[in-house]
Write the structure tokens for this entry.
Amino acid sequence: MPRPRKFKSAKELEEKWAEYKEYCNNRTTITHGFSSKNSEFVSAELKRCVTYTIEGFCVYIGISRSTFYDSYADNDKFSDIVTRIREECEADAREKFELGIIPTQLAGLWMSKYGYSTKQENQSDDKILEQLDKVLGGIKSEF
């Protein structure tokens, strides 16, 4: 017999998702640096945000990712909110990349998770040579 769901309604899941986003947007971290002006090490607590992920949400609510997908993603009652969660994760990662919050070195890694690619589609060498031959053939026939 499967375990009972943590959330009885899509509304409850939606409320917990909103709470998780607030948590991600308001994380604090302690940073350390050296003040040459005062010749001393200083520490400061800074507000930072982290990217929304379904994995992070699962950790936040205390369930495994497989349980999340089994209990909610495959259930018609929860499918709309699960779809929105996925879309908000993608939009959040893209926005944080575009704003420079995610380092550009990691952008390809993050965005590949959502189906984006850093590879550019190139024509095959044969097609390019074929097109060049046509152009050059047209030029030669004019002389």
